[in-house]
Design brief:
Layout (H helix, E strand, L loop, with lengths): L1 H7 L9 H12 L5 H14 L3 H12 L13 E5 L10 H11 L4 E5 L9 H7 L10 H10 L2 E5 H4 L6 H8 L4 H8 L7 E5 L5 H11 L4 E6 L13 E7 L2 E7 L19 H12 L5 H17 L5 H13 L2 H13 L5
Parallel strand pairs: 1-4, 2-3, 4-5
Antiparallel strand pairs: 5-6, 6-7
Helix pairs in contact: 1-3, 2-4, 3-9, 4-10, 4-11, 5-13, 5-15, 6-12, 13-14
Length: 342
């Protein structure tokens, strides 16, 4: 098996410049590099540790293949993560997207199936009955954003990978540079993003890559226990980018007015299991999983300027769930996803 060979005797590679990395990933995405060589490169970079220049080169290679498109979402945000924390949590940021959209903050959620976890955001979205488009349908995305306040951008629809590459990533069973570049290579070219990282050394790296990619505002965060989420169990470190300026701060569960919970209380499962968790949360079920969504939504509201404090953000998030508005976003998005033209 290719992954057995690569993982037992990983190749050694020197750091690549941005131009070198872009060239290598262009060869992979164009299908000009054999899959065994691509796998060797992905494993070597992962073992070495991907640099800012390498991640930026990968992002640029991916974005060259996405035609600039105005999706009428200048104020939209996305909340996501790199994965790879191995904590087995449910799809927190995707569940949060319904809450955030219900409060009037538009969300262009970008995601994929799971490669380093049992359930990527797309696995849960599909299990919720939301159709995943197999082709870029910009009119439909605009309609969803205008009518529902949320649209889902399925990664393979907008980032076309050569046949066999996704299967290779699955077989490798490791977090690769595509997990890192994926959230940064947002097909809508958003101005504002919140991204969680499981590796704290990536906090300044992601801020720099986003700044060099034209983002105006970002929060890059790393939670307690290594989570790529705003943590319910302890302190979360946040690196902020705002109009070219950087700052670092932290938040704790107590700042949101909640009692800390162990990360084990956030365990999820496959897409079907996580969809059930999502529906329960949107229905108002109390507990640590709902707390995790509330603090993520509250953070998004402060990030976007909808509220000035985290406690006000918590109140807005509770209202979005308690009023039934968040559950309605799910229903409306599901219905809209099956109402495509042509």
């Amino acid at each position: 098996m290719v992954q057995d060979v690569l993982m037992s005797s990983p190749p050694v590679i020197e750091d690549l410049s941005t131009a070198e990395a872009e060239q290598q990933f262009t060869a992979i995405l164009d299908g000009d590099m054999p899959l065994d060589e691509a796998g060797a490169l992905l494993v070597a970079l992962s073992r070495k540790g991907e640099t800012e220049e390498e991640i930026l080169g990968c992002v640029r290679s991916m974005m060259k293949r996405v035609a600039p498109t105005d999706l009428d979402g200048p104020d939209a945000i996305d909340i996501g993560g790199t994965g790879g924390d191995r904590l087995g949590t449910f799809n927190i940021s995707t569940t949060t997207a319904f809450v955030v959209a219900a409060a009037g903050l538009p969300v262009l959620k970008h995601g994929n199936r799971g490669f380093s976890s049992r359930s990527g955001s797309a696995d849960m979205i599909e299990a919720l009955g939301i159709s995943l488009s197999a082709w870029p349908d910009h009119e439909h995305v605009r309609a969803c954003l205008a009518e529902v306040g949320m649209a889902y951008l399925f990664t393979p629809t907008h980032h076309r990978f050569p046949e066999g590459l996704n299967a290779l990533r699955k077989r490798l069973c490791i977090r690769t540079i595509f997990n890192l570049a994926g959230p940064l290579a947002h097909p809508a070219r958003l101005r504002r993003q919140m991204i969680g990282v499981s590796d704290p050394t990536l906090l300044p790296v992601f801020c720099n890559v986003l700044a060099r990619s034209g983002r105006k505002q970002a929060w890059i965060f790393h939670g307690a226990d290594g989570a790529d989420e705003i943590s319910v169990s302890g302190r979360t470190t946040i690196h902020e980018l705002r109009n070219g300026q950087f700052r670092v701060f932290s938040v704790s569960p107590e700042d949101f007015g909640i009692v800390p919970s162990p990360v084990t209380a956030l365990r999820g499962g496959d897409g079907v299991e996580n969809a059930a968790i999502c529906r329960d949360i949107l229905a108002g079920a109390p507990g640590p999983k709902t707390d995790a969504v509330l603090i993520c939504a509250a953070s998004a509201f402060v990030f976007a300027g909808l509220t000035s404090t985290l406690l006000d953000g918590m109140a807005a998030a509770r209202e979005a769930i308690g009023s039934g508005a968040a559950a309605r976003v799910l229903i409306d998005l599901r219905e809209a996803s099956h109402d495509r033209r042509g």
